[in-house]
Every structure is written in structure tokens, then in C-alpha cells.
Amino acid sequence: MSLAFSTASRNIARSALRVQRSSTSYPGYRISLRPTTALHARNSGSVAADAAEAVHQNAITNPDPSENSKSAAFIREYEPYSLTTYARPGLILAQGKGCYIWDVEGRKYLDFTAGIAVNALGYGDEELSKILYEQSLNMIHSSNLYYNEWTGPLCKLLVERTLATKGMQSASRVFVSNSGSEANEAALKFARKYGKASRGGGDDKYEVVSFYNSFHGRTMGSLSATPNPKYQKPFAPLVPGFRYARYNDIAGLDVITKNTCAVIIEPIQGEGGVYVATPEFITALRKKCDEVDAVLIFDEIQCGLGRSGFLWAHEAFPAEAQPDILTMAKALGNGIPIGAAMVSERIAQAVKIGDHGTTFGGNPLATRVAHYVVDKLSTREFLEDVKHKAELFRAGLEQLKEKYPSVVTEIRGTGLIWGVQLNREPNAVVDAARLRGLLVITAGTNTIRIVPPLVVKEEEILQGIEILDDAIASL
């Protein structure tokens, strides 16, 4: 570890001790940074320091595998059999522990992607591994034609832990699926069923409103709610009845009418570039939905389950701004495929036997794992720790913005979901970070997205910011 990194670490860590809760009504903290060099510590005027600076910033510790490497041979052998739907670098990941992962060449990476906000408990959680082993010996799958020992307890835990927060106080029942997109599909179906059966409803009450810059999934219903030409155009025509409004634009809510059966929104847009909904907007949205008896769906697939520093991101909104349906996935299984839609009793009464189903959803293996994950993520101590670590990120990223004003234009986020807005295409920074041992991903337009495991340690946050500093400096 460099002397400069040690200095930056100490300064930011000391600053974190002076964190005070913000007066705002959404997740946020104030951090009082003293006028210090912090991440500017390497800006020494001496020739020797400048030389060391250049070496430090441009040192590539994790070069991508060469053409004659084990990784390249593996890819050449198996890539011809895989349908190409992702652009990937040439490394092959093999194992992980905590917030670090290793490729087959033995290179170590600090992971600030968490499998796209999935691995909340990091890699190699020993208790989770034990649960997987024990449950796989007992029963992996049985189908929803019968009860099993873990789906019911998971549903109860989700409802009870939610009711114990400032979040969805109408939470009543849960449908368990296999993924986030499927959870959203279920939510949209439930909302349409409710709309047709509601007072003043009928066959014309089927429209769904979603928001530009959102991402709700890739299956046809959730894709229809994702107004991005990149995702939608190749698969048109989509499901009819979807209309779109602008995020955080109260004046644009007139798109919601008596024919609207549902509005689906992310309290924090992740894929769209890490944008946080304002309390005023969400409150106005809830009011508008009530006026036309439309179901309000909060998609917390990426921002929920502790990612914001709350169990649910919408806890930061006023009490009157709560959803009728809450969807979740990603962190729910810490890598085991599972999603869920939690509904109010009013919505539950509209859903009858045979209206929806799933073959694999709610299997005892996935639900037992999810029970363990939810129990761990929902403790007060765990969530307070996320909020504390959020301020290390906020301080460090804001200092990067100050240091590179010609590159970094804005820092957005809360908890452990952050967007670093650049004034240029971000892949060069992502690549430079990877070559220095840090994995980050992109989002929206020219945004670097940071979503580390929620168990990330303070020293790992500081190390990651230092590598990101080097990556930007290398451009």
C-alpha cells in the first residue's frame, strides 16, 4: 500500500467519524471533511514525488489474459457453443471470498459490482454454503402443487420484517418467483386483474405507466415497461397499453388516467444511471394513483434489501407514499435465482387460484437461502453499517469529482449504490480500473455504477476509490 493511499485512507476515515444525519427525508448524510489533501495527497510538488505519482497511476497489476493463456484457450473452446448476448473481457472468474474474486490465472480483483447488486453478503459466506449443502441433501425442488418447509416461512419473514420498518405498511402476502423480471411480470398481471375487477374498472382499465430511464426486465411485459429503444426496438411490437412519463416530473403525471391500472417505478433507478426519486414526486405519484384507483408498484429489485441503507429504499419517502406491490430479487438469494412480489391484501383479494403460477419459483432450496439472507440483511446493525459506509463512498467520490472536474461531472446515489457521471464514454475508465484490480460497471449514459457487496469493509472502500483515482488519472 502506498504512503499516499495510507494518507487518503486516514483522512477519509477520520472524516467519517463526524458523520451527522441529514435533515432531508430521503437517504442521505452530511459528512464534514476538514480542508485536507485526502485523495489529493499525491499532488506533491517535488520531482521525486511526481515521478512516483506517474508510476503509481499507470501501474497495471492485472493485465487481461494473453492470447496464449489458459483463459483464452477456454474461451476459444467453448465460446462457439454459447449464444452471444453479452460483451465480455477475456478474464474467467473462478472463485471469490468476501469482496474479492480471482480469475483462473490467479489474478485478484476487488469487486464493486456484486454480480450486478446480487451478492449482498459477498462471496463464500460460510453459513449460506452450509445451508445450500444441507438443503440440497434434503430437497431441492418439489413444485407448487404441494407445500414445502421454507416458502411459507420466507413469505412470513418478508411481511413481518417489512411491517417492522417505515416501509410498505399494507404488506400482506408474497408470491415467490425465479427472478426480478418474473416478479415484475407477476406484479403487472396482478395489477391488471385488480383493475378489471375494481369499482369503475373493466376491460378498458389495462394501461400501465412507467418512466423513461427505467429498467424493469427483458421478458415481454417488463420489457414493455422499459422505454429504452436499445432494449425495445429489436422486439417490437411489444405488449399494448404501456405509456411513459418523465422521472421526477410531477407535471407529467397527467399521463395517468382512469384507464391506468398500474404505475411501476424504481425508487432509485439503477440501470438508468443511479437517479433517486424525490419525496415530492413519489408523494404526488401516490396521490395520483389513488385518484384513479391505479396500483402503485415499487420495483426494488436492485435498490431494495439493504442497498440504500434501509431494508427498502422507499422507507426514506413520506409515510403516505407507499406501494401496493413491492417487487424484489437480486440480493434476495445472494446468487441463488429467486424473486418475489409482495402485495397488499386489497391486491391479494383480486388474485384467485389459477391466475398465476411458476414451476421453479418458491422451491425449498432457494427459499431457505433467501430466508437466511433476509434475516441477516434486515437487522438494524447491518443496515446502520451500510449507512456508515455510504459516507466513505460519498466523501471519496466527491473528492474525485473535485480532483477531476474535467472528467467527473456529478456524483449520485445513496447507501451502497452510486453513479459517477462522466462527460465521456465510461468504458475506458472501467477497463483501466479492471487492469488495476477493480471491477466496476456502467449504467445509463456515461455513468460508472458502483454496487459493491453490502459487507464491503472500510479499507476496501478506500482501496477501491484509490484504484478508481488511478484509473481516471491514466486516461
From TrEMBL:
SUPFAM superfamilies: PLP-dependent transferases. Pfam families: Aminotran_3 (PF00202). It comes from the Eukaryota. Its EC number is 2.6.1.11. It is found in: Mitochondrion. It is an enzyme of class 2 (transferase). GO terms for biological process: L-arginine biosynthetic process. Gene3D superfamilies: Aspartate Aminotransferase, domain 1, Type I PLP-dependent aspartate aminotransferase-like (Major domain). Its main location: mitochondrion. Pathway: Amino-acid biosynthesis; L-arginine biosynthesis; N(2)-acetyl-L-ornithine from L-glutamate: step 4/4. One of its GO terms (cellular component) is mitochondrial matrix. GO terms for molecular function: identical protein binding; N2-acetyl-L-ornithine:2-oxoglutarate 5-aminotransferase activity; pyridoxal phosphate binding. Keywords: Amino-acid biosynthesis, Aminotransferase, Pyridoxal phosphate, Transferase. CDD domains: OAT_like. InterPro entries: AcOrn/SuccOrn_fam, Aminotrans_3, Aminotrans_3_PPA_site, Class-III_PLP-dep_AT, PyrdxlP-dep_Trfase, PyrdxlP-dep_Trfase_major, PyrdxlP-dep_Trfase_small. Its cofactor is pyridoxal 5'-phosphate. PANTHER family: ACETYLORNITHINE AMINOTRANSFERASE, MITOCHONDRIAL, AMINOTRANSFERASE CLASS III. Belongs to the class-III pyridoxal-phosphate-dependent aminotransferase family. This is Acetylornithine aminotransferase, mitochondrial.
